Amino acid sequence: MSQSWAVGCSSLGRSKNAGRPVRGLGRRIGRLSVWLFAGAVGLSVLAVLLLRWVDPPISAVMLQRLVVEGGPQRQVWADLDAIGPQMALAVVAAEDQRFPLHWGFDTDQIIAAVESRLDGGRLRGASTISQQIARNLFLWQGRSFVRKGLEVWFTALVEVLWSKRRILEMYLNFAETGERLFGVAAASERFFDRVPAHLTAQQAALIAAVLPNPVLYRVDEPSAYVRKRQRWILSQMRNLGGTAYLDGILDTRRGGA
């Protein structure tokens, strides 16, 4: 009887000890996960902060296209002062009219898009310029909950760490303006043989008109839809009050820097 009891105690002791390595491994994995998460957060903050002053030579979208598709790409960097206010106003009028006012997410447009969908309409986009440059610079193309979550994170970072002026400058330099063509300076050079500061309002509006899909819609061969959208953008530019609408962003002396 005593021998049986001793064997039972020995087995129980081994059973308890057997669970300890598993729990220890779980704690180590948990700590490693926390460190990896903290490291990823820190690196993302550092990357966004660095680009407040450093002009990147390429975006994540350009890199993805290069790896997947290959072939030449064209992107010309131009400082915001060298782009000119007509082009800046055109993209704001076309893509994000509340850009000077919101904090990265246009809640009015998001609510309107949801209501339109609930009423049976098609799901329309409500992405701001801040959201677009966040995903163009730092993320891959595609649709997933992970990518959307990262888009929210990077949008918040650029809004906190960059000025509106810097966000707009980045957008104007990395928006896709044609097939394998990025930035308004490259588009201005190819389609109008001039620097972007010398674009007319009509030319700027035409470049902005193709931004929803610059492969399908072309600046050099504008469809009837593109011409209609160009006229709409020009009317919106006037309705916003002209280039004065962006004075607080474009003029560094008024807090745009």
Structure characterization notes:
The structure is a single chain. The chain has two domains: 50 residues; 204 residues, Orthogonal Bundle (Penicillin binding protein transpeptidase fold). A three-stranded mixed beta sheet has the order 1-3-2, with helices on one face. The protein has 257 residues and is mostly helical. The protein is built from twelve helices and three strands. Helix content is 63%, strand content 3%. Helix 6 packs across helix 7 and helix 6 crosses helix 8.
Offer a few descriptive terms.
single chain; 257 residues; mainly alpha; Penicillin binding protein transpeptidase fold; 2 domains; 3-stranded mixed sheet; 12 helices; 63% helix; elongated
Largest sheet: 3 strands, mixed
Q: Which strand-content bin applies to the residues? A: under 5%
Terminal CA distance reads 86 Å
Structural class: mainly alpha
Please report the first level of CATH classification, the CATH class of the largest domain. Mainly Alpha
What name does the CATH topology of the largest domain carry? Penicillin binding protein transpeptidase fold
DSSP strand count:
3
What would the average pLDDT be, to the nearest integer? 86
Widest beta sheet: strand line-up: 1-3-2
- The residue ranges in which pLDDT falls below 50 over 5 or more consecutive positions are 253-257
Broad shape: elongated
The tally of domains stands at 2
Portion of residues in helices? 55-70%
- Count of discrete alpha- or pi-helical segments spanning 4 or more residues: 12
Going by CATH, the architecture of the largest domain would be Orthogonal Bundle
Helix-strand topology string: HHEHHHHHHEEHHHH
Radius of gyration: 26 Å
Looking at CATH, the homologous superfamily of the largest domain is Biosynthetic peptidoglycan transglycosylase-like
